[in-house]
Design brief:
homodimer; 8-stranded mixed sheet; 5-stranded mixed sheet; aa-tRNA-synth_II/BPL/LPL (chains A, B); ATP-binding (chains A, B); ligase (chains A, B); Histidine--tRNA ligase (chains A, B)
Chain lengths: ~500, ~500
């Protein structure tokens, strides 16, 4: 017989850029998504779950070349050789869903969606190829009341998941105001206009002085490299800087400055008026500048949007990986985009929406100690006598029936130390022990593992004597005693 | 200038075999998953969410050929030309996760997982390429106490999601008993053994008489085609039939019959003893034969498993698409599989688990009217005067603050009829109207849309007069009146 070539063992690894989530990482996220869904639902939004796989044609933005369809999405060919891909966000699928089902959907269509999206991008630290998004969008509402409402909803979401007022701010801007500014600058060509837009995008990073230099002759950056500027005169650059720095003491002051920055531009005036309407609507609903502000320095993603844009930022400071203080930063963003559905139907359908970065928001809550990062484990009923498994199972059945998380140790029970090590690894609050003697006497031993751990760390001998962390109770009192200990922990 | 070729519009369609889920379809499933997670958690299982994408090597079962990696999974090559694929179930990823993280995980490792899986199979009616699974598994526990526990948990899950006792049954069998039966039959070769296994798999479909024919000379099937049999003698076939039909009046009776069916086989005796232990453990926890039974006719998927297997079946009758009565059937299944981790590490790790078909379970609850299939929509505040949007937004802000789902109509308000049509399409319970006159008088009109619909269908003129479905209340009583109507509905 020919020798059979042995297959090498497969490697147990996630593909590059992917990861697994364990225990509290999963349940905390599920709890947060459920809270966010609750707010979205209260605002009248309906759930939508579209398929994870879309035709590349419908996704649109990323078109694969024939050999390697690798431009940002994970794509492959189906049995008819048509390219399909994993969705890279929840907005492109919404446009497809709306176009496909528009005759059956209400108008306006308000939907929320939550789930993983996939990006075929270079992974990095904390940057994965699969992550969660959590969006709400209103399709078919031209009124800026829809935008104002989404800002109010975003504020409610942040407070509902545990970010107190004062620790966040929702900032609102309008792409039309920027268009107005560009219009009144009288730029000579499209290339110059694009260069100005790219420079504005750097405002977050380089600040006012940096943008001033970059719009003019250029700038020596931190690495020592010289970055060529757009080449505008000081006068030409002025409207952009006036726009970016026009945040005033209140909405009225900001709007006055913006009106000056846009000069005679009609589109600019429309943008400023929309911002005024949004501010008025928010005040009428009780959302003051402690929660939502007009802020022209919100520039991120302006290119994608056609009207109002908004961003939620957490304002408290955290320490970064190098121990330096920095603001936590953006956790959600969105705005108005009016031509996504048009790709499919030819009809322009106004739409506005928001996307919440759930994983960043969870990280923020952990950072602030608002959610426990370690989950409490089950009560562990240890196995002293393998033949009495039925007795131990009866105990956990009683505990579970009382709503208490509990399990019998199901590993090899020979080494009792391993059972307690298991309980420790699970972060169990209580262990239950019933050996032959206890069984004969009709009692069980109940160990308070949390107290035991505290005592082991720093208790004096007297405290050890005074505060026993192990109790002997009648078998019939098992559930009552465990509950008592859990309530005290 | 050359004429620019216009791109044709993309088609707004889901890829073949995929679908979208709307509103209650999504939120009902989320609610069910949350309930199931609650039971799993109470039993001491921890959440795990592995990545949707795995290396094809790790998935193992389906290996793509080079040209068309189409054998059951959706696969593609990553930037290093390695094949990766969407997971086709939650068990293969569990084996990979356990092998990868085994030094950090507790032993036994009890985990639950829920989420979509993908199959590259021919879609059919009600058969999609993406669907949900909801699994719980215990890795590293050799004791059948782990299997018994999963059966008990499955029973709890079904009752927690709304299937009352009596409407379901969990059936338990053991692959080892079947192996014992095959052993004592003294089959001449592996080919014959495989043929017997394939025949047993048809028991669900063809019943005892059918299996008898198929084990012997052959059988004329319903379509008129003659199916060749395995060619066993009547005596040789007897143990298989004894095994399949050995369900007795109670567990003890069934076990006695099984002991007869396995003759002198040691593996068979081990299997019967495991079933006895499982039955004893379940009785000790209070799970009687009204919930969980030993049933040797459970054959589905036996090939995959190495020990105990279980299946949950809904026992009530429904009408199929042709109006015929049939039992709803299986909604969950699982069992012991002891060599999945071995592929990676070389070490055999015992494991047992269950997978719940969430979508089928939801369908069953809808069928029985236990969950509403249409979700209640939001209270709709209509827009009578576009310039008073702030007033209307203030109303919904009050309603939402009181926990009432509400929204302002954000479409074009010109045609009032469209606003009521919208409320109807959303299945809204209440509409609120405040025109100029109402504003001047400090009142609002509140329409009970559910009562209105009922009246429109079948009310007499007297009833119309007696039971108005529209109320005029002071603006300050808006929230109280809406709440009153909602509570009555």
């Amino acid at each position: 017989m020919a020798k059979v070539k042995k297959q090498p063992r497969p490697k147990a690894v996630t593909p590059k850029g992917f990861r697994d989530y364990f225990g509290a990482e999963v349940s905390d996220r599920a709890a947060m998504l459920s809270k966010i869904a609750g707010v979205y639902h209260r605002y009248g939004f309906d759930a939508l779950e579209s398929s994870a796989v879309e035709t590349v044609e419908a996704l649109g933005k990323f078109l694969p070349d024939v050999d390697r369809p690798n431009e940002g999405v994970f794509a492959w060919q189906d049995e008819d050789d048509a390219w399909v891909a994993l969705r890279y966000d929840l907005t492109a699928p919404l446009a497809r869903v709306y176009a496909q089902h528009r005759n059956d959907l209400p108008l306006p269509y308000r939907r929320y969606a939550m789930g993983p999206v996939w990006r075929n991008e270079k992974p990095g630290p904390g940057r994965y190829r699969q992550f969660y998004q959590c969006d709400a969008d209103t399709v078919g509402a031209a009124s800026v009341a829809a935008d104002a409402e989404i800002c109010a909803m975003l504020s409610d979401v942040l407070e509902d998941v545990g970010i107190p007022r004062g620790d966040y701010i929702v900032r609102v801007n309008n792409r039309k105001v920027l268009n107005g500014v560009l219009e009144c600058m009288g730029l000579s060509d499209d290339g110059q206009r694009d260069a100005v837009l790219r420079t504005i995008d750097k405002f977050d990073k380089v600040g006012e002085a940096g943008v001033r230099e970059l719009l003019g002759k250029g700038r020596l950056d931190a690495s020592g490299a010289y970055i060529d500027g757009v080449g505008l005169s000081v006068e030409q650059a002025e409207p952009v800087l006036a726009f970016l720095t026009s945040k005033g003491a209140d909405a009225a002051a900001t709007l006055t400055k913006l009106r000056a920055a846009i000069g005679e531009s009609l589109i600019g005036a429309e943008g400023v008026d929309e911002l005024r309407q949004i501010a008025d609507l928010l005040v009428a609903q009780g959302y003051g500048p402690d929660r939502i502000v007009i802020d022209p320095s919100v520039v991120r993603g302006l290119g994608y949007y056609t009207g109002p844009v908004f961003e939620a930022e957490l304002t408290f400071e955290i320490l970064d990986e190098k121990g330096r203080k920095r603001q936590f930063g953006s956790v959600a963003g969105g705005g108005r985009y009016d031509d996504l559905v048009k790709r499919f139907t030819g009809q322009e359908v106004p739409a506005t929406g928001v996307s919440i970065g759930v994983d960043r928001l969870l990280a923020a809550l952990r950072e602030k100690g608002r959610i426990q990062s370690v989950e409490s484990g089950p009560v562990v009923v240890t196995v002293m006598d393998r033949d009495r498994m039925a007795d131990y199972q009866a105990m956990v059945a009683e505990l579970r029936a009382a709503g208490i998380r509990a399990e019998v140790y199901l590993g090899n029970p020979k080494n009792f130390g391993n059972q307690l090590k298991y309980a420790d690894k699970r972060n169990s609050p209580v262990a239950v022990i019933e050996g032959g003697d206890e069984k004969a006497q009709g009692v069980v031993q109940i160990k308070d593992l949390i107290l035991g751990k505290q005592m082991a760390e720093n208790a004096t001998l007297e405290e050890w004597k005074e505060r026993p962390s192990q109790y002997e109770v009648a078998r019939g009192d098992l559930v009552a005693k465990v509950r008592e200990i859990l309530e005290q922990q």
